[in-house]
């Protein structure tokens, strides 16, 4: 096994852990939403706080570092569209985690402490966290699709499918948020 193959394998394993954990979290979140159990929903948010430093951040950083090392070892061009999409997706995910999820989770915890799980502010914050999380998960799927297909600017069909995936996920996240808001009022 060459160094490139080892790095690629480790990069893929890290990505599987990262995207797999996010997908599993989404599935559990969906199950919680459908249960209508507000207390369960609140405790599910605690899981995100616990998972972030133990799973999401290490797996995402390992994916990035190993991906860069793999690209260097494989003499890949960092100007390639699929690499730019991958790095952009990582950047979006990282910025969302640090700039949105982390501070919003703290605000949510404070709101829960003040008003409890059924407080309208708590419900709104949880709904927004879920919506952004679902969009971020779609970004990760777009990155994975890009890593597999390795599109160039000439691959209109592939780029269209990736863009459509992201657009559908955004529309779905907003629709689900609105639907859950209506059901809970």
Describe the overall structure.
- With 185 residues, this protein is mainly α.
- The chain has one domain (3-184).
- It has 5 helices and no strands.
- Helix 1 runs antiparallel to helix 4, helix 2 (38-73) runs antiparallel to helix 3 and helix 3 (81-115) runs antiparallel to helix 4.
- It is elongated and about 55 Å long.
- The model has no long low-confidence stretch (mean pLDDT 92).
In short:
The protein is built from 5 helices and no strands. It is an all-alpha fold and 185 residues long.
Please report the total strand number as a whole number.
0
Helix content: over 70%
* Mean pLDDT over the residues: 92
Task: Outline the low-pLDDT stretches.
Answer: none
Beta fraction of the residues? under 5%
Summed up, the helix count is 5
Q: How does the major sheet shape up?
A: none
Shape: elongated
Structural class: mainly alpha
* N-to-C span: 58 Å
Count of distinct structural domains: 1
What would you report as the Rg, rounded to the nearest angstrom? 18 Å
What is the string of SSEs from the N terminus onward? Answer: HHHHH
């Amino acid at each position: 096994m060459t160094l490139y193959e080892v790095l690629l394998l480790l990069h893929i394993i890290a990505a599987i852990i990262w995207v797999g954990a996010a997908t599993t979290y989404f599935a559990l979140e969906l199950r919680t939403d459908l249960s209508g159990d507000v207390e369960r929903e609140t405790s599910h948010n605690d899981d995100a706080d616990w998972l972030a430093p133990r799973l999401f951040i290490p797996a995402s950083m390992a994916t990035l570092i190993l991906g860069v090392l793999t690209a260097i070892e494989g003499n890949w061009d960092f100007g390639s569209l699929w690499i730019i999409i991958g790095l952009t997706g990582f950047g979006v995910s990282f910025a969302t985690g640090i700039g949105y999820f982390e501070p919003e989770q703290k605000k949510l915890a404070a709101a829960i402490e003040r008003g409890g799980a059924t407080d309208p502010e708590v419900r709104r914050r949880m709904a927004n966290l879920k919506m952004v999380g679902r969009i971020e998960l779609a970004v990760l799927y777009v990155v994975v699709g890009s890593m597999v297909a390795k599109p160039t600017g000439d691959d209109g069909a592939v780029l269209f499918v990736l863009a459509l995936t992201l657009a559908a996920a955004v529309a779905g996240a907003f629709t689900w948020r609105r639907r859950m808001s209506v059901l809970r009022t």
